[in-house]
Amino acid sequence: MNQDIIVDDDLDWQPERQGIAFTAHWQGRKIDCFLALHHLEHMTGLSLIDEGNIMLAFESVRFDIEERVAELVGEEAFAPDGGLYL
Predict the structure, then answer these.
(1) What are the percentages of helix, strand and coil residues in the chain, rounded to 5?
(2) Are the C-beta atoms of residues 72 and 84 closer than 8 Å to each other?
(3) Which Pfam families does the protein's record reference (predicted)?
(4) Amino acid 3: pLDDT
(5) Which domain holds residue 26?
(6) In the predicted model, is pLDDT for residue 2 greater than 90?
(7) Does the structure show a pLDDT above 80 at 1?
(8) What is the spatial distance between Cα 61 and Cα 80, in angstroms, rounded to a whole number?
(9) Could you give the number of structural domains in the chain?
(10) 21 CB contacts (<8 Å, ≥6 apart)?
(11) What is the CATH number of the domain that holds 54?
């Protein structure tokens, strides 16, 4: 678990974008994040179809997601809109 990055519980499955939007906090800053479904499937090794299973899969790799967010912050890999896209 990364203590510098905190991923919030505000997960929002966005079927039209095929991914999950969420926010993370880093040094008091709120960062909008987006995790593509195909990346989540790769992380879990699962083929995900319904929203319930997608959310459970996210929770099963939450700490890995926090680590990836921390890496992207360290690389200053922010998109032009200030968000992070995983």
Answers:
(1) 35, 30, 35
(2) yes
(3) DUF1488
(4) 63
(5) 5-85
(6) no
(7) no
(8) 27
(9) 1
(10) 11, 12, 14, 32, 33, 34
(11) 3.30.160.140
